[in-house]
Write a structure and sequence with these properties.
It contains 3 helices and 8 strands; from the N terminus they run αβαββββββαβ. The chain is of the alpha+beta class. The chain has a single domain, classed as Nuclear Transport Factor 2, Chain: A, CATH 3.10.450.430. Strands 1, 2, 3, 4, 5, 6, 7 and 8 form an 8-stranded mixed sheet that branches. It is globular, with a radius of gyration of 15 Å. InterPro entries: DUF2787.
Length: 144
Amino acid sequence: MQTQDVLKQAGLTLPVTKQFQQHIATLLSEHALKTKVRAVVINFRDPDYSVESGGFHPVEMRFIHKDDEWYFDYVTDFSFMGRVYPELEKEIDFCWSGHYVFHYLAGDISLAAEKNDLWSLWESNFMEYLSMDIYRVTVTEESC
């Protein structure tokens, strides 16, 4: 399976590495997806992540299946926010279909270099966490 043919970018163009693409392509192929799947959501969860002890942020990714190709929809990194009643909220959001990159401290990021730098930093950290095998991964299919 060639990764450049598996994961397409539309709306945004970020420096997604081949290593990242290969990992996602493997997850997609391991779950023997049906041809009538409209989209897939992949969740990465550290079972020990909590307000009290911290841990590795939950991550959710969505990929759209269109014309026998897979397209990035979004990659969202969540964290607990709030002091009295903390809740999981978006910390970083890369949204190809919405054409934006968001960070909770900076808001919408408009400069291409800043988007690319944030993606590269986030992706590098995420791939390191994957190599540590700390995530429980679930894949959910959305049917047509």
